[in-house]
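Lab channel / #folding
Pinned by the channel admin:
"Please post every new chain as: sequence first, then the structure tokens as a reply. Keep commentary short and put observations after the output so the thread stays searchable."

First post following the new format, from NK:
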Amino acid sequence: MYDFVIVGAGFSGATFARIMSDRGKKCVVIDKRDHIAGNCYTKYIEGTHIHVYGPHIFHTSDDDVWNFVNQYTKFNAFINRPKAIANNVVYSLPINMMTLQQLWGVTNPIDARRTLEQVTQRFKAMYPTPQNAEEWALTQVGDEIYETLIKGYSTKQWMRTPDKLPASILKRIPIRLTWDDNYYNDKYQGIPVNGYTPIFERLLEGIEVKLSTDFVLEKGLLERLGRKIVYTGSLDELHGYVHGDLDYRTLKFENVTFNEDHQGNAVMNYPSLNVPWTRKIEHKHFNVTHNTVWSTSIVTTETPDQWSRGKIPYYPINDETNERLHKKYRNMTSDKYIVAGRLGRYRYLDMHQAIASAMKIANEH
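Reply from TO:
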């Protein structure tokens, strides 16, 4: 009998397993995939650590999380400075003084603030209490920036127009009246020097792991193995979709190998609706060296895809309908289950948030 049967070998499950194992608890980790690390999984291909399920840039201001993860890896000094191609112009992201200079010709924060006030004034009068992502964006940056950099990208990313999305979707996007183009505001940031997979190998060292094992299909047997089940999968799947499917955004990835530097940056966004993809990732730029020999360079094109069962559920759609459905499934879940992770909680969790949440749950049990 295990103390904990942990479903999912991503950051939530692996962190919980490590902490509890170090406390003398007997744990087993189960994952339906044939590898550990969940969506953070990296493979070493042609001299580069490839982020198989999309780019993962670690960032946090939480000292406890940073100290915890640094026990299992070293990070390089990568800073995320994405760019966006729109109307044959490469814009600086996140929205900062360089972006505003490119669009409006302003050269200082005073003029930038004055222009922002002018372009948002009528929208603030129209939408004193923004009810969706479109209204919020228009009240923050006006229609030109919204149309150029936000509307198309958000429509592709979430497969619905921003007027059908909650304002919270966009509120986490920085808007700065400085020349700082670091996408994140956090104290710590970087990429593991050896990729993400070795972190999980160390987190799960000495812990029994069962891969290619579908917990839901074998639930009757696997539930009986542990005193508690830490479940990081989707609750609609756990309960056989009896009330219908929760909605997710899923993705398609296509890798192309080039013999030279292809785009000059790790992350290039494509907000235009004229192309189906949202961004391209050139993995060698995560290495933060300026003397890279470009014998080969793998570029991943990321394209949103319609969600259906069997596809990987990347991001939850947290509208009112889905929130009600998730609550219904949560209320069906027995007290033997500890619901965790992005899928289980049906919340957008970055890596540091998944670790912090798992640490908190571990301390409660």
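NK: The radius of gyration is 22 Å.
TO: also worth noting, The chain has a mean pLDDT of 95.
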